[in-house]
Amino acid sequence: MSNWWDTKKRSGNYATGMDVLNYDIGNLVSEANHIMNAGADYFHFDVQDGHYGPMISVGSPVVEGVRKHFPSKIIICHMLVNDPERFIDQFKEAGCDCF
Length: 99
Fold this sequence. Notes:
- The chain is built from four helices and three strands, in the order αβαβαβα.
- The protein is an alpha/beta fold.
- The chain has helices at residues 2-10, 28-37, 60-69, 88-94, and strands at residues 17-19, 42-48, 74-80.
- It has a three-stranded parallel beta sheet with strand order 1-2-3.
- α3 packs parallel to α4 (88-94).
């Protein structure tokens, strides 16, 4: 992950991604394909638990589903949850590359 990010910064390019919460979750794969075909570099998940983050959002099964369809894309998860360390292994196993 750090090599990919550092290469982007050194080259003067910027990495782009769109928060999955902005997708039509009912058409997640189609939406994700559209975003990747438009040039996005990574997937971004704001994982919220309704306590630390203001709403309940996606869980590790959604990350796992995206990983299944996009095995080579970077997945970044912002853990807007109480006690995020409880979830790190779960999301890492689901396919998250960076927290």
